[in-house]
Amino acid sequence: MRQRSIIAITAALAAGSLTLTACGSRDDKGSSSGDKTTVVIGVDAPTTGDLSALGLGIKNSADLAAKTANKQEFVKGVEFKVEALDDQAQPSVGQQNAQKFINEKDVLGVVGPLNSSVSQQMQKPLNDAGLTQVSPANTGTELTQGDGWKTNNRVRQFKTFFRTATTDEIQGAFAADYLYNRAKIKKAYLIDDQKTYGAGLAASFKTNFTKLGGKIVGADHVNPDDRDFNAIVAKVKKTGAQALYYGGEYPAAAPLSQQLKDSGQNIPLMGGDGIYSGDYPKLNKKAEGDLATSVGKPVEQLPSAKTFIANYKNAGYKDAYEAYGGLTYDATWSIIEAVKLAVEGNNGKLPSDGRKAVLDAMSKVKFDGVTGTISFDQYGDTTNHTMTAYKIKNNAWTPEYSGVPKIG
């Protein structure tokens, strides 16, 4: 445990950010905080680096859920605490963070990560430890259903992995349908960043776009750290593409779009939830007209999200909740709900094997969340498949259309 100086503790008490409770002994039921048992929910997200806008929104939204549960005394006798670790969007760091959570016995669930590639390194160790993981952002279909999903041979990969975000199989189909049938674009150039998320999303888009009758007039791969795309932009120009579909994230997508427009090609760049960030138009002076899909309906349009939005604002977080705020709150709350079921099923006390009890309860979790009804299917996937298409208008993402795509 980290030492705190008398001065630091005094300052924290004055600011109201630290509460002192009677010390209790640790046992196999979690640490005692006065007459309450402390349950830790781990959060893994990139809170520094290029994707920190999304990661900080995840961290803050999880924190808000825990604080709300504590204020409501939602689980009698339990005090929730969030421990957030920065994965820097690096798979190796995510794996190290997973081990840290495993080693801390008070951690009964983990929220995150943002990146599917990071999750691939976290899933097995968390599964081996029987530690529940709920991602608000991972969309790679294979994470839950295995590579066999492409041939409809779907097999659940890890019993501990759940998500409140829907899959790229669904997102790719939705994007293709929107671009072909609603935007009336028949020819697209395809680029991905070779990461798990970007490559998988691009492949799903390609399958569904061509099935509808669209034509992929060219394809390329880039590196996530690339920022000079002039060579690719020149290739796109020769194909007569009406749009560029990008599988990847906003730090690269923004300069790619701007260089495309700078070359005289007034065509939209479209991407998935990885580019749906408030930072995208800040990094791209010519973002107007670009498109993105994201999971669920805009929380600002959901009556169920009004309280979340108000509480987030009142909590004074300096960073926006961003694309995954509502989904993160629901992911965190699903673990809280599972803890409640575990406690209620054990005469009002946390079972000695808290991790097993929480995992067993996850299949029974169902509640009305920020983003709608929250429950999980046989793969651990969310049962909510709603998607939304957004367009940059007046330098901000504006919702255009929401719906549930047809698969197959």
Descriptive overview:
The protein has 408 residues and is an alpha/beta fold. It is 39% helix and 21% strand. The protein has 13 helices and 16 strands. Strand 13 and strand 14 form a beta hairpin. It starts with 5 loop residues before the first helix and ends in a 5-residue tail after the last strand. The N terminus is likely disordered.
Mean pLDDT: 92
Which class best fits the helix and strand makeup? alpha/beta
Low-confidence blocks of residues? 1-29
* Overall helicity: 25-40%
- Helical element count? 13
Mass-distribution shape: elongated
Structural topology:
Blueprint: H1 6-15, E1 23-27, E2 30-33, E3 36-45, H2 52-72, E4 78-86, H3 91-103, E5 107-111, H4 116-128, E6 132-135, H5 142-145, E7 161-163, H6 168-182, E8 187-192, H7 196-212, E9 215-221, H8 230-239, E10 243-247, H9 250-262, E11 269-271, H10 280-283, E12 291-295, H11 306-315, H12 325-344, H13 354-362, E13 367-369, E14 372-374, E15 387-393, E16 396-403
Parallel strand pairs: 3-4, 3-5, 5-6, 6-7, 8-9, 8-10, 10-11, 11-12
Antiparallel strand pairs: 1-2, 2-3, 12-15, 13-14, 15-16
Helix pairs in contact: 2-12, 3-4, 6-7, 12-13
Which key phrases capture this entry?
about 400 residues; alpha/beta; 7-stranded mixed sheet; elongated; disordered N terminus
Short description:
The chain has 408 residues and is α/β, with parallel strands linked by helices.
